[in-house]
Amino acid sequence: MSESAKQCPVCKLANQKVLSERDYDDKVTYDCSRCGRYTISRTAEVIAQSKDISAQLSGWLRERNLLGIEIPMLTSTFLKEVVTTLPSYSPLEKQNKLLKAIELLTDYPGREVVLIPEHAVSLAWAQNENELKYYLKSLMDRGLLEIANADRRTLSDPLYPMVITAKGWEHLETDKSNFASKSQAFVAMSFDNELSPVYKNAIEPAIEATGYRPYRVDSTPHLDRIDAKIIAEIRNSRFVVADVTQQKSGVYYEAGFAYGLGLPVIWCVRKDDLQNVHFDTRQYNHIVWSSESELREKLEDFILATIGKKAT
Ligand SMILES: [Zn+2]
User: Fold this and answer.
1) Residue-range domains of the chain with CATH
2) Using one digit for the tens of pLDDT, what is the confidence trace for 26-38?
3) Centre of ligand 1 from the C-alpha of residue 122, in Å
4) Ligand 1 center to residue 309 CA distance, Å?
5) Poorest-confidence range of 58-72, 134-148, 168-182?
6) Mean of the pLDDT values across residues 90-104?
């Protein structure tokens, strides 16, 4: 294994460590100060360079590195999939992610975490240091974070030594948007009897194989109505599988609600119904399936690639 330095193709930081690269290899492993460690194929490197996905992809890589979730090799197919699956986080969600990341970097409460702005940008899924600084300032204004030894330091220092306040710890404990720890996967699909075996033989086992617990609303008393129970179960989930076969409005509603919460939504559709997929969501990548076994396999692979196996 050779060791050298190159620009990170994802976040464009110069001089990042290259852990393995051989002339005849079709992949490169980077250890980037902003993104963390990941392996990318040569063709995907070109895509990562040319598309403006660096902030989201860098935030995603860093979060997984921090949480110790396995990162699949970044191939060009995978990059295209991940781009349509990653949610755009709101400023409030980015603040929560930043606070959560600082929690993960904290050895013990009261201990300061020294952030190097250039490297910490990804902790907030931010575009640049200005955006990061804005969220740090917001968390400080909310009383959740403070500068260690504030009498001597400010956010204009080259390093930010941050410490989570008592109120910050309390916030972390009650933060409902901290869904990374959730183990449920919400399944939105038609209740038609024709599709029941699809749930039993494909969707349920695929989700279980990745360590998550599938949740599907039982049978049909409410038909297409969305009740409080459904909303609560979506809020309590890590991600949503939306199979739009038969084009039920309830499925679109649930998926849209989840998307608004910042949850990843995995779209699926049976091949013969693909042409009927609603215009507004056609832009999203769908898992197109013809048989239960095909859906089971593709869905499991897709969850592993984009969400990752649930750590037990
Ligand atoms: Zn990077």
Assistant:
1) 4-85 (no CATH), 91-174 (1.10.10.10), 182-306 (3.40.50.10140)
2) 889 999 999 999 9
3) 9
4) 23
5) 168-182
6) 92
pLDDT of residue 210: 94
Ligand 1 geometric centre to CA of 59 (Å): 9
* pLDDT at position 246 over 90: yes
Closest by CA position to 249, among listed 270, 271, 276? 276
Q: Packing angle between helix 91-105 and helix 54-67, nearest 10 degrees?
A: 30
Write down the pLDDT at residue 1. 44
- d(CA 131, ligand 1 centre) in Å: 17
How much is the mean pLDDT over the chain?
86
156 CA from centroid of ligand 1 (Å): 23
CA 229 – ligand 1 centroid, Å: 41
- In angstroms, what is the span from residue 8 Cα to ligand 1's centroid? 5
pLDDT reported for residue 131: 96
Ligand 1 centre distance from Cα of residue 261 (Å): 27
126 Cα–ligand 1 center, Å: 13
SS (H, E, C) 41-109: EHHHHHHHHHCCCHHHHHHHHHHHHHHCCCCCCECHHHHHHHHHHCCCCCHHHHHHHHHHHHHHHCCCC
